[in-house]
Design goal:
By secondary structure, this protein is α/β, with parallel strands linked by helices.
């Protein structure tokens, strides 16, 4: 039997280790199901490797291994740990991930020398208080378990550097974590964190710790949520909100433009808890829908309102529920028919159809109310029952009853009850100071409040940084005036600032007050921030005051499309991908307003970026141009988004656009998924290549199972297609550096990159369109370099929250290369701008020492960092010749040569160190392709954070680099002159 053979093999290895007095024993990968009792004889053993076996338990005999320092049990089937583990008092590293542990024994308290404990991918629901004894612990990894809370005992882990808690069921963290002053890494991805904590985590580890410190001072329990009323225009939403508030009835109430916000107080009939709701009354006009989605957010109760006497079809009940469900998949909805009561038509709605389509977890109940009080009783029919239902749902929301810092809540209340719609930034800081909040914490409070939608504040925007918008409905109303404007609609969304100013000074609706002129530039900038508009250019030599409101572009596709024939131009290739948008049931779905956002988000690639007249966009499509990366056509085909890219190397632009659409769909509409599809190719069983669509993820999974072909999904076509050929159209296509190693790729293109650099410099001097004169081969190389840089920037995105990722380095001591066995060495490290792709000295000609540091680096750190350093140095060497080409900051020859030399010295120091090490890394650079997977990427992340800590000691400002967020909310560190680009 296989088990007996494995057991015998283990016994033989144990006996050999006993005879030799070995301190290491490898019993990994032998399908072992039971550990021989003879293991007890290895009392001298320091390292035991049992990974990748089939062990279900550990024998008591392990108690004899009292000298053991490292025990690796990853990838087994252990369900519990024996008490005998208490004897392993010298243990420093314990690897238990990928087992089936449901709890940890109290005996773990004896492992007081433990430095690293890995428990990922188990089934732990709680941690014992005994972990308080692990006072030397530096790494605690608990990703992918079922933890719902952490014990206060975690405060005793004072040496903890890294705490991994991704993909658990945590909603809160104990304030005790704030006392872990050594903590550098805190991973909380994929946890149902309460909104405030989630917003803090989005900003990085230090922000979470600051938030917890604020909460530790004093906290308060919040029982509040949104009450969102939506439905078609004139169905009685405003009257219903008034009835819920107990307001006096108003005949002829005017139509809502934009959003109105008013408070509603309800009491949970089951617990008696009083709950404060902010009632958001959304205007029902279709033109408002894309804008309204900006303000859908948890925690909230949704009321879909329709007018019973007009029937459900006219009320578009299902359409509104779909809109909610796509944006907030866990939303709770009540369907409310208005204008009911005695003598009125009873509601006619197919409740079962709605419940079958959306589920009882989403649509909680149906109500029929009359918002107008009865003359006899003065109460409103059905309102009391509706309020009770609203209160019960609100009380059940997971965010209800969450704890927040008390000082923060006091400030939030002051600001929310202010009669002002906005305040200067300094006034808000002063209000915070009166509540005992210093400026650093006040800035944190504003950042989190902005993410949660309480207030609006863009700290890094030069136009917006000095104002805090207190009432989002005030802004929504200003936007509605523009969307409703007949002249702007007639001009297909083009509008001059003077006309906007006129609209905002003198609103076109009776009873609406105007806004002071000093706010008009702020409104326009906020519309740009919300991806509603952008400034267009007619003449690059002149300042533009014209904006495009993307929602109002023409609804028909222009014909013919410029420079877009049936076939690509000579030297170009064409690739096609489909973004298939589906809901949680896998049904085709519409992302409402997707193309309006894309028109704004991608306008830097517009054909009309230097002259708007050349722009090509309509409500269901647009054309883009990205210089040497080629041209692309994006358009709806049904509910699918079809992306066609044509270029010498179309993979780069196609990959970028696909990622952008997928990110936007899945992050803005959390209830939708974007499945990337590729079309079928020759030979097609139905002689119609391109009609059959294959889901890329399924092709990848099939390839992993060593399948080489995949059947066409179209009924009636029996063709099986080659998976590799299909994946050539997929964004998963590897950059060349991954296929052949970055050093090999750099060697192949190095000379041509220098030629390209010289050409670009010359064309700049001649003021010619530089990219258009490049050869097909040159454009291909530039696109491949772009792809490699993009790949680098997708690495370690979590670590970018806390510090920059781009730097070059070289040893300070000229004799460094004579010491291959060095233990510690001084390196000069230079930070780079992640936007311009250039080192800081090149961007700071008057202060070339800014962003340049001398650091003492231990060999151990350097060796562990080799995989990242290799890819980093190789990629920067590739981008250097053309660095700044997009920003018009081409390096002069002297600066270029100096940076090139530093990168070369950095590469040589890696090679020299590896030659002096007993490391497999010194061999083939296969690690270039594989190190950014699973555990390896996390290891590199922690190494980068160690570097951040060293840099902060030298210069907390990181050489003046500013942390910004791009459209995907990814953090970048850029030179101050590029901040306004974000």
């Amino acid at each position: 039997m296989a088990r007996d053979k494995a057991y015998q093999e283990a016994e033989q290895r144990i006996e050999k280790a006993r005879q030799e007095g070995a301190i290491e024993l490898d019993l990994s990968n032998i399908k072992l199901t039971e550990i021989p009792e003879a293991i007890a004889s290895l009392t001298q053993l320091q390292q035991l490797d049992l990974r990748n076996n089939q062990l279900t338990e550990l024998p008591e005999a392990i108690a004899s291994l009292t000298q053991l320092q490292e025990l690796n049990l990853r990838n087994n089937q252990l369900t519990e740990l024996p008490e005998a583990i208490a004897s392993l008092t010298q243990l420093q590293e314990l690897y238990l991930f990928n087992n089936q542990l449901t709890e940890l024994p109290e005996a773990i308290a004896s492992l007081t020398q433990l430095l690293q404990l890995y428990l990922d991918n188990n089934q732990l629901t709680e941690l014992p208080e005994a972990i308080a004894s692990l006072t030397q612990l530096q790494v605690l990894s608990l990703d992918n378990n079922e933890l719902t809370q952490l014990p206060e005992a975690i405060a005793y882990l004072t040496q903890l550097l890294q705490l991994y808690l991704a993909n658990n069921q945590l909603t809160e963290l104990p304030e005790a974590i704030a006392s872990l002053t050594q903590l550098e890494v805190l991973s909380l991805r994929k946890n149902p964190l309460n909104p405030d904590l989630a917003a803090a985590y989005e900003q990085g580890t230090e922000t979470v710790l600051q938030y917890l410190r604020a909460q530790a001072e004093e906290k308060i329990t919040l029982n509040e949520a949104k009450l969102i009323l939506i439905g078609e225009g004139e169905v009685g939403k405003s009257c219903l909100l008034g009835a819920l508030r107990g307001d006096e009835w108003v005949d002829g109430r005017p139509t809502t433009h934009g959003i109105e916000i008013k408070s509603v107080i309800v009491t949970d009939p089951d617990s008696g808890t009083k709950i404060s709701l902010n009632g958001w009354d959304f205007g029902g006009q279709r033109v408002y829908r894309p804008t309204h989605q900006l303000f859908f957010s948890a925690p909230a109760v949704y009321l879909v309102v329709w007018k019973a006497r007009e029937g459900p079809q006219q009320g578009f009940v299902k359409e509104w529920i779909t809109l909610i469900k796509n944006r907030e998949p866990d939303a709770k909805v009540l369907v409310v028919a208005t204008h009911g009561g005695p003598g009125q038509r009873q509601p006619d709605i197919d409740r079962q159809e709605i419940l079958d389509q959306f589920g009882k977890d989403t649509v909680i109940d149906f109500f029929h109310v009359d918002s107008k009080p009865n003359q006899d009783t003065t109460h409103c029919t059905g309102i009391a029952e509706l309020k009770d239902a609203i209160a019960r749902i609100a009380a059940s929301l997971p965010e209800m009853g969450r704890s927040v810092p008390a000082k923060w809540q006091r400030v939030r209340k002051i600001l929310q009850t202010s009669d002002k719609a906005y305040l200067p930034y300094n006034d808000v800081i002063a209000i915070c100071a009166k509540q005992g909040i210093d400026e650093e914490q006040a800035e944190l409070f504003l950042r989190i409040s902005h993410i949660l939608g309480h207030f609006i504040h863009y700290h890094n925007d030069s136009t917006l940084r000095n104002i805090v918008i207190l009432k989002p409905d005030w802004l929504a109303k200003a936007i509605s005036f523009v969307l409703d404007d007949a002249m702007t609609r007639k001009r297909n969304g083009l509008v001059e600032f003077e006309h906007l100013s006129q609209l905002w000074s003198h609103p076109p609706f009776a009873g609406e007050e105007g806004y002071p002129s000093k706010l008009h530039p702020i409104f326009l900038r906020l519309m740009e921030r919300f991806d509603l508009s952008y400034k267009v250019v007619f003449d690059p030599a002149e300042t533009s005051n014209t904006s495009l409101i993307a929602q109002l572009v023409p609804d028909t596709r222009p014909e013919p499309l410029p420079n877009w024939g049936e076939q690509p131009e000579a030297g170009d290739r064409q690739q096609v991908q489909i973004c298939r948008i589906v809901d949680s049931r896998g049904q085709f779905a519409v992302a409402e307003g997707l193309f309006y956002q894309l028109i704004v988000r991608l306008h830097k690639y517009s054909l009309g970026r230097t002259n708007y007249e050349d722009s090509i966009h309509w409500q269901r499509g647009l054309m883009l141009d990205n210089d040497y990366n080629g041209r692309a056509l994006l358009e709806y085909v049904g509910t699918d988004v079809k992306i066609t890219a044509r270029a010498a190397y179309p993979e780069r632009f196609l990959s970028y656009l696909t990622e952008e659409i997928k990110w936007l769909v899945e992050n803005f509409w959390e209830g939708l998924r974007c499945n990337v599809m590729v079309p079928c190719i020759e030979t097609c069983g139905m002689n119609a290549p391109g009609n059959g669509l294959f889901e890329v993820q399924k092709l990848i999974e099939s390839k992993k199972k060593n399948r080489h072909e995949f059947p066409c999904p179209i009924s009636g076509c029996g063709e099986w297609q080659n998976i590799d050929q299909l994946l050539n159209n997929a964004p998963t296509a590897q950059p060349p550096s991954q296929a052949i190693g970055i050093e090999q790729f750099r060697y192949i293109v190095k000379d041509e990159l220098n030629v390209i650099r010289q050409d670009l410099v010359m064309y700049d001097r001649l003021d010619q369109a530089r990219f258009q004169v490049l050869s097909q081969e040159q454009r291909t190389i530039l696109s491949q370099v772009d792809q490699q840089f993009a790949e680098l920037m997708q690495m370690l995105t979590d670590e970018a929250k806390d510090g920059p990722r781009l730097f070059s380095f070289q040893p300070v001591d000229p004799k460094f290369f004579d010491r291959p066995k060095w233990i510690s060495a001084k390196f000069q490290l230079t930070l780079w701008c992640e936007h311009a792709r250039q080192p800081l000295p090149a961007l700071n000609p008057n202060d070339k020492k800014k962003g340049v540091y001398e650091l003492d680096l231990p060999r151990e750190w350097f060796t562990k960092a080799v995989p990242y350093l290799r890819i980093l140095t190789g990629t920067l060497s590739l981008v250097l010749p053309v660095a700044g080409s997009a920003t018009k900051f081409i390096l002069d020859d002297t600066t270029y040569k100096a940076i090139e030399e530093q990168l070369d010295l950095g590469q040589k120091s890696i090679e020299s160190t590896l030659k002096g090490s007993d490391m497999a890394l010194a061999g083939k650079s296969k690690s270039d392709a594989s190190f950014l997977e699973g555990d390896a990427i996390r290891a590199q992340g922690s190494i980068l954070r160690e570097l951040h800590a060293l840099l902060k000691e030298k210069d907390p400002s990181f050489g003046g680099l500013v942390r910004v967020q791009n459209k995907r909310r990814e953090f970048l560190w850029v030179h101050p002159q590029f901040v306004d680009e974000y």
